[in-house]
Amino acid sequence: MSVKHLKKDKQERYKMDLEKVLISIKQNNIDFVRFEIADQYGVARCKTIPSKHFKEQSKQGHSFASVAFVAFDPEGHFIPGTGYAEEKNFGDAVCFPDLDTFAVLPWCKNTGRVLLDACIDGKPVTGFPREVAKAQVQRLSELGYSLLLAHEHEFSLMDKDTHKPAFETYQWNATSRSSFNLDFTQQIGHDLPIAGVDIESIETESDPGQMEITYKPAFGIRAADNAHTYKTAIKEIAYQHNYKAQFMTKPKPDSLYGNRDRCNGAHLNHSLWDADGKTALFYDASSSTGLSTVAQHWMAGILAHAPAMTLLHSPTINCLGRHRMGSIMTPKNATWGFDNRSCLLRVKLAGQTSTYIEDRLGSSAGSPYLSLAGLIIAGIDGIQRQLPLPRPITGSAFEEKNLPPGTSRLPDTMKDAIQAFLEDKVVTEALGSDFVKAFIAAKMHEMQCEENAKAKGDEHWETNYYAFL
Fold first, then answer.
1. Residue 30 to residue 25: CA distance in whole angstroms
2. Is this model's pTM higher than 0.90 or not?
3. How many CA atoms lie within 13 A of 379 on its CB side?
């Protein structure tokens, strides 16, 4: 297996892109390049290649255990029944760099990074989250659309040894808290743009040690790639400053707070554009709502598939706790409203090019590739079936009296989330049987881990099991 399996025109482009990367490696004094993937839980996994071997490894491909792509749990143990571990005798996938993703990592001395595409027996690994997302981006393009998106992650920052929060108090955006460690925050502001993630704002959130750092949106698969780069960079830079950064939705057990109010979410801020990314398509000044017809169908699709999508956006037992009634500003049902944080979809009307939708379903511990894929699947179905958009919520979506008839509730347990996911054939068929098999195997594995922990009386199993997310 080598790049020779590509069509001739793609071979030529690959050679040209490879030469550009080799020039960048030389100009930036890169000694090592990470060949990196994101597993099913969004954990970055890599092999580090001396840069003198980059050209050869890029052409011939590099072997990577297929188990790493979809068959590791959050603790790094293999998950049985995924189709990619024991069923393949723990064999290798052959991986080729997506050369467009090459980036210099300024927080790692003389190091670059490239994300990988993987093949088994000459065919793409269709259960691999990035491959799943790429397929949906391609579907959207074939319909004449492109998606501009940025994930908006919250994370918890704590001392890596004592696990005490990096700053105390619950003062949301308090200026006095923002200078808790300027070396850390300013390094993020300086380093991530060099790696391709254009930092937009840095702020402290409501919880002790909780932060939100936002960045500019990108089109298509690059949006998820940026989220992957961002999460990995935050973790590594934090560690260099003697912190531990966790994107785990609920990093501390309920007993410390008495409820699940304070959680790390990951909203998907997005807008639909034409295939060339030149014309924004969500706004229509002549519409009674200010939303175009395609925007309304897109939103209706998301709401229709929201119960199934919950498992893709909030894919762990720990994540699903966000949607219980104790949480504030976390959606509990499939609703939308104008600048309404109690709803699943928060619409921000701002004219032709700046109108966007904030999808508030996601949790920070989720895979950005799976949330991107799920969003597109639901939106496409809404457009293709021309689904009608329910009326907006003008009050609180947490109050039953404000909900339109037939409003779906979001699942908040793993059992219910799995059921909603498997019952939605539009979603599962679009994702493909290979992915669904591996994904559900992981969820069943989590449920077994929870059952085992409860039998032992371990109340803190979530904190330990999801600690690497």
1. 5
2. yes
3. 29
